[in-house]
Amino acid sequence: MAERIKVKVRKKKNKKRRLIKRFIVLMLLALLAVGGVGIYKIINTISAADGTYDELERGEKSKLRDDVVDIQKKPFSILFMGVEDYSTNGEHGRTDSLIVVTLDPKKKSMKMLSIPRDTRVHLA
Fold it and tell me: Start and end of every Cell envelope-related transcriptional attenuator domain (predicted)?
């Protein structure tokens, strides 16, 4: 009778170990799947960002400037224009948002000015 008890205890321990091993394998597979999806999303985002960048062909400075702007020392402004082209099927889009950003590296400040799309101006 003592031998039967030992056999039952071993079977219970083996079942527990198998369940723990299966759980660990499933968790590792889930972690691998989540990691794969995350890496795919990161690569997809980076490639989309690279596809939207067009370098200017004007060299180091604009023809209208006397000196090159050193963005590490002098304040500079950037105009962001959001373009909507869904109503024209991707052709002749119009800007629907304008934001002027001024960065000052000395003061370590950034100022943003949003210009509403329907701003009325008097043209002479």
Answer: 94-123
